[in-house]
Amino acid sequence: MNTIVTYPNGSMLDHIAWVVPDVKQGVEQIADLTGAQPFLMPEPEPGAYYWSGGLVIGDGPQLLEIIGHNPTYEGQHPFFHVLQSFPEPRLLFWYIALNDFDAFAAQADAAGSPLSNVEHFVPPDESFSEYKRGLIGAHFSFLIPNVIQLIHRRKDWARHPDRSCALHSFVIEHPEPETLQQRYAQLGIVQPVQQGDQPALRLTLSTPKGLVELAGVGEPLEALSQGG
Question: Are residues 28 and 110 in the same domain?
Answer without folding.
Answer: yes
